[in-house]
């Protein structure tokens, strides 16, 4: 038990506490006026990563860690428990002082996204796998989340087939949490990601009862030798089959 009364022996509580604290550090850095733009993004990446790695090593010394900002090691491949983190997801948005950036803290157990916390400090809100919130009902006109700068053609095509509105947004974590928060209904990504981009969002989404998979419907598997995990679908479970069929149809046309 920490001095603040948080049970750091609980993985969910630890993930949330680290995500919240990293978010506070990032906000302090952002407000300091010492950096701006890309320099602010670089400083944020390094500062948040240093804190997260130290916090995990102190509180989970026997677990392995995979971080976007840390040199990888093959030693994690033999570990059952691996913390997969993105200290600052949406570096560009953070440097622009937007709200759509996130901190991802996840624990994969035997390759499965088991525990997750996604902090959105600019909102501010943190969603985690231990406190799933009810997903609001879908509106009549569906909303499809896409990248602010490079919307995937597959997502645009599926949105057109569904008659869905496109909702541009930054960070992968911000987009995934927008589905949980009722701000959108489908997050379809085919533009390339890595394990740290979607492990925490997937864990939180699955805990809330949403569908989360690769775009061919296969499960998301983590702690792989190759950390590239290029595609992702997060949506309401009752929409999953239809969306997956539309994606398959697009793939068949491309073939």
From TrEMBL:
CDD domains (alphabetical): CysQ
Any one GO biological process: 3'-phosphoadenosine 5'-phosphosulfate metabolic process
Membrane-spanning residues: none
Keywords recorded for this protein, A-Z: Magnesium, Metal-binding
Organism of origin: Sphingomonas jatrophae
Coiled coil feature spans: none
Iron is among the record's keywords: no
Residues noted as binding Mg(2+) in the record, renumbered to the chain: 68, 86, 88-89, 197
InterPro entries with a match to the protein in the record: CysQ/Inositol_MonoPase, Inositol_monophosphatase-like
KW rRNA-binding (keyword) present: no
Name recorded for this polypeptide: 3'(2'),5'-bisphosphate nucleotidase
Needed cofactors: Mg(2+)
GO MF entries: 3'(2'),5'-bisphosphate nucleotidase activity; metal ion binding
